[in-house]
Write a structure and sequence with these properties.
heterodimer; A: MetI-like fold; B: mainly alpha
Chain lengths: 284, 315
């Protein structure tokens, strides 16, 4: 009896330890968010922070509008490359993904997800910055698109895979050709899942710093020319945090707050879309 | 099921457009393997001057002198290995605990909230971890971990002082936080793949939750959890920005983990845009080549481990 009692105590203790360790794992999340808000708000609560461009130390009224626009443009251009390619690739894997070639594509995407992002920056530098002889936003977009591609491919594949076979079979039974079944029935039904994947990829790309260091490079002036150097939020955070100037450090924290807000908002939106997808797939 | 549909469509009567659809999508899907090949070939080509000058000695030499154009990668390989190893040692027990919690059936209430929290941990950009580590985590670690440890255990070589705010250890701490979600999410998937029947038979024999977990679930999922660990290692090896901000930037191989150092990725991040000439940037690209080859190999091993475990458990 007492032996069993100890066994039960041990089990409860282990379970409590697991909850405690998970709680411990969440402490950094709370701390990062708390410090980003507390230290970022002083800079981020001024309206000019979103209107003005960067200014030299000592001149008040600096802003990060150029970085916000830069991040939006670079990630936008990267999405234009990565999302169509990734979605079509993912549809291929879901529709015809039984052969050996599909296996290679899958493996390549899974390995690519883990490729260090700094290496992607080096590659984009070599193939775009060097021939153009100057840093450019487009080279940053190419680096980011390689980063996004595998995420889009794999999430599209699993979203299309969630669609029950009955839908495909009913389309085929009506005499529709395979491509029409795929493009007009399956992909629309999987759209929320595909959007989830795209949003996750966008959120990941928006927060990346390493691929931008030698491609987008940063630019203190207002610039919307994709063939020239452009600023980005992560670059402001990285460079500002490492300077000894209080104003630039505050600006870095403010930019970090804007970045975290953006990334978490996109992330939560993708979660919401995914939940709809699962409900929808359940109804089909 | 789907395979049966597939073969029926390849019947000779199927119109040409169907094959064209398949070929077209297959062609687009080449982008992923093509990107991988382009990455490796470009880095090889860019690193060529350094490879031909230093040969394989590059990997074991520890000088880094842009003035005399004398380069070796050992301090950075060492730094990458040490920070990743410490990060894994910290993240592994916590990550497995989190994955056990997440893998329990049902995701309501507090457990669902905790799961979302862990996933959000993965969403926070690396540079935000970096600025937080620079101003909050590293000073905290210096005061409450590094200083007491070096005072009491400083006689052990790798724990020797003097403690430094920006060190291998600070970088490892932030790395541990960053790889935790990967470790937990992949382990959770492997643990979930353990058949219910196995778990239920154990419970039916009178085993408690912990006995079932420790003697049935974890041993079945062991290889997959190892795979998740290796996958997390791959993330740790390639992580750049947060590490660059707190590692201290020194081209040395110090005996203590509380000393400043460098990793492959942070060396590239700090110096590449200022590297002039031919050999200097080529040497930095070669660091990148070493990094990506190691990371890709590690990832490949991890993927194969995770997949084979899931397949074996399912069978």
């Amino acid at each position: 009896m007492s032996h069993n009692f100890w066994r039960r105590i041990k089990s409860t203790a282990a379970l409590s330890a697991i909850y405690a360790l998970t709680g411990l794992a969440l402490v950094p999340l709370g701390l990062v968010l708390w410090y980003t808000i507390a230290k970022g708000l002083p800079a981020a609560s001024h309206p000019e922070f979103y209107v003005n461009v960067e200014r030299p130390v000592g001149i008040p009224g600096a802003g990060i509008s150029n970085a916000i626009v830069g991040t939006a443009m670079m990630v936008g251009m990267a999405s234009l490359i990565a999302i169509p390619v990734g979605v079509i690739g993912g549809v291929y894997l879901a529709e015809y993904g039984h052969g050996r070639w599909a296996g290679w594509v899958r493996l390549a995407s899974d390995v690519l997800v883990g490729a260090p992002s700094i290496a992607l920056g080096l590659v984009a530098y070599a193939i775009i910055v060097v021939p153009l002889h100057h840093y450019s936003a487009i080279s940053a977009s190419v680096a980011l698109s390689i980063l996004m591609l595998p995420v889009v491919i794999r999430t599209t594949e699993s979203a299309v895979g969630l669609i029950p076979g009955g839908l495909r079979e009913s389309g085929l039974a009506l005499g529709l050709p395979r491509w029409r079944v795929s493009l007009q029935l399956i992909v629309p039904a999987a759209a929320p899942g595909v959007i989830t994947g795209a949003l996750l990829a966008v959120a990941r790309a928006a927060g990346e710093t390493a691929p931008l260091l030698f491609t987008g490079f940063g630019n203190p002036l207002w610039s919307v020319d994709p063939t020239h150097a452009m600023s980005a939020l992560p670059l402001i955070v990285f460079r500002g945090a490492l300077t000894p100037y209080k104003e630039l450090q505050d600006q870095a924290w403010g930019a970090a707050l804007v970045l975290v807000t953006m990334v978490l908002a996109i992330n939560l939106a993708s979660r919401w879309v995914l939940r709809r997808q699962i409900r929808l797939a359940g109804q089909l | 099921m789907a395979a049966a549909v597939d073969t029926s469509l390849k019947a000779p009567t199927a119109p040409k457009t169907q094959d064209r659809y398949r070929t077209l999508t297959a062609l687009v899907s080449c982008a992923a393997p093509a990107a991988l090949i382009v990455i490796v070939l470009t880095l090889l080509q860019q690193a060529a001057p350094a490879i031909s000058k230093f040969g394989s000695a590059f990997l074991v030499r520890s000088t880094w002198n842009p003035v005399t154009l004398d380069f070796g990668a050992l301090p950075f390989i060492y730094g990458t290995a040490v920070t990743s190893a410490i990060a894994l040692a910290i993240a592994l027990p916590v990550g497995v605990a989190v994955s056990l919690m997440l893998a329990e059936p049902g995701a309501q209430g507090i457990r669902g909230a905790m799961g979302t929290g862990i996933e959000l941990l993965a969403a926070i950009p690396s540079v935000v971890y970096g600025i937080w580590a620079l101003y909050v985590l590293a000073p905290f670690s210096l005061k409450y971990i590094e200083t007491p440890v070096t005072e009491h255990l400083g006689f052990i070589g790798f724990l020797a002082g003097p403690p430094r705010q920006y060190s291998f250890f600070s970088a490892s701490l932030v790395l541990a936080i960053m790889i935790l979600p990967t470790l937990a999410a992949v382990s959770r998937d492997v643990i979930r793949a353990v058949p219910r029947g196995l778990r239920e038979s154990s419970v039916a024999l009178g085993a408690t939750w912990w006995e079932t977990t420790w003697r049935v679930v974890l041993p079945t999922a062991r290889a997959g959890i190892f795979g998740a660990t290796v996958l997390a290692l791959g993330r740790a090896l390639g992580e750049t920005i947060a590490v660059t901000m707190v590692i201290g930037n020194r081209d040395e191989i110090p005996p203590s983990i509380f000393s400043p150092g460098y990793t492959l990725a942070s060396k590239i991040a700090n110096e590449f845009s200022e590297a002039t000439g031919t050999l200097y940037p080529a040497a930095l690209v070669e660091l990148g080549l070493v990094l990506i080859l190691v990371t890709l190999t590690v990832n490949l091993i991890a993927l194969l481990l995770v997949r084979s475990t899931q397949a074996r458990i399912a069978a």
